[in-house]
């Protein structure tokens, strides 16, 4: 079945290229064999943590490890321009209180609402390269919120640039309106 799926992707790539379209896919293990037929590989380097294991959404160590696996050998290094590092533009609100479980993804609107209501102190988690804050809700349940900031996004952009990779963004309407600064990149396609 796997071979048939790979053959389908190759044929699809040929068909799309003949009409001047690009094909991007999420197939990590077959990078080398698909590189002639696929224009880009987008890798989800977020959703590291979950309600059962709360923490940062896209720790730098995990991102670097992923890029190392993909681009570590010299053959794959030539494919760097086809690698797109997935960056999340949403956050997570995790429950931390003993005996409580839960939480999950939050949008920019929910993030701003939590900031306004609880007025928490933003903290920088150096090892993961992410901002977070803690708060206690109306039922006295403790939460940790991780949400991307300009600083965390900038670090991930630089990581992609250093590896010769591009970026792909998971956004779909949940981005907070931020003032964008010039990170020295000529363009970012969304």
From TrEMBL:
Presence of keyword Magnesium: no
Biological process terms in GO annotation: carbohydrate metabolic process
CC per GO annotation: endomembrane system; extracellular region; lysosome
Gene Ontology molecular function terms on file: oligosaccharide binding
SUPFAM superfamilies per the UniProt record, alphabetical: (Trans)glycosidases (SSF51445)
Record keywords: Lysosome, Secreted, Signal
InterPro entries per UniProt: Chitinase_insertion_sf (IPR029070), GH (IPR017853), Glyco_hydro18_cat (IPR001223)
GH18 domain span: 1-190
Name of the protein in question: Chitinase domain-containing protein 1
Organism: Salix koriyanagi
């Amino acid at each position: 079945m796997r071979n048939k799926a790979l053959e389908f992707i190759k044929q699809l790539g040929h068909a799309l290229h003949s009409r001047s379209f690009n094909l991007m896919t999420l197939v990590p293990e077959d990078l080398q064999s698909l590189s002639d037929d696929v224009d880009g590989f987008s890798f989800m380097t977020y959703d590291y943590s979950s309600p059962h294991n709360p923490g940062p959404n896209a720790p730098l160590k995990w991102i670097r490890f992923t890029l190392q696996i993909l681009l570590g050998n010299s053959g794959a290094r030539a494919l760097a321009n086809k690698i797109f590092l997935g960056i999340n533009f949403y956050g997570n609100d995790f429950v931390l209180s003993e005996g409580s479980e839960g939480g999950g993804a939050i949008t920019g609107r929910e993030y701003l609402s939590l900031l306004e209501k609880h007025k928490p102190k933003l903290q920088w988690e150096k090892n993961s390269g992410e901002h977070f804050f803690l708060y206690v809700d109306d039922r006295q349940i403790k939460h940790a919120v991780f949400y991307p900031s300009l600083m965390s996004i900038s670090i991930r952009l630089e990581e992609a640039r250093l590896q010769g990779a591009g970026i792909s963004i998971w956004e779909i309407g949940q981005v907070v309106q931020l003032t964008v600064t010039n990170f020295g990149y000529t363009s970012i396609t969304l």
